[in-house]
Structures are given as C-alpha cells and as structure tokens.
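Support reply, case 0932

Customer input (verbatim):
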Amino acid sequence: MIVCTRPDLSQDVSMVSKYMHDPGRSHWEAVKWILRYIKGTIDIDLMSEKDTTGKQECTRYVDFNYTGDLDKRRSMMGYVFTLCQAPVSWHSILQSTIALSTTEAEYMTMTEAMKEAICLQGLHDDLGFDHDLLKSNCDSMNAIYLAKN
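Our regenerated output:
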C-alpha cells in the first residue's frame, strides 16, 4: 500500500521487505525510520501547478549511490523527469550489475535515464510538445569522456 501511494518510499520499503521472513535489528530500525518519515511527511503532497512562466521546461535529474546496497555491493541509481516543475517519470533501483568504479556506476545510471528519455521524447512528440529531453547533464567528467568515446 505504501509503495503505491508514496513513490518516495518505494525503494526503502522494497529493501526491508526482502527480510520479512527473518528480520534483524537493523531491519527493524529501518522500518521504524520509514514509519517516522511517514509520520513527518503525512501532510506533504505531490502537486502539479500551471506554469505561469510559459517555458514549460522539462528537466531530468539523475544520481547514483556507489555500492549503496551493503548486502550485494551494488549501486543505487535513480532519476526523475519533471515537466513544469512536476514529476512525470521517476525510477529508483539497484543497478543490475556490480560497478567496478564510480565512473562505471554513473555511466550505467546515465544510460538508464537516457533510455527513459527516448521513450518520453516519443510521447512528447506525439502530444505536440517541443522539448528536447535528450540533452544530458552529468557531474562526472569521467562518465562524459566515456560516453564520448
């Protein structure tokens, strides 16, 4: 239920759910953290508002956490696409393979976000929006050089 109504918690709930059959102390601490987070953010909603600037910009945010999963040593990756400052697409998941470096983890994250951008670009074209979703911003020069190569 929480996963459907609270996308900000989907990854956390998914992670602790893996240990339902034999939870340890750290898993109970994580569940308590999730419940405190829900209690503290119960009045916060995702809202879409009319863009009064007339820009109707689409923005992509991409980030990763190198070896964020301590159990499997895989990196967490996530991205969100916003249109008129409202989220329209997001994803947060463990990367399918173990990255050997931060450069590789960032490159894999950018690749996954680019796949989503291509799908959204087709949808936006069909709807008549004039947005270039395929522009990519990245804070890792090594990943940029790898992509150019």
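We compared this against your earlier run and they match. Two observations from our side: Residues 2-40 form one domain. The radius of gyration is 18 Å. Please reopen the case if you see a mismatch on your end.
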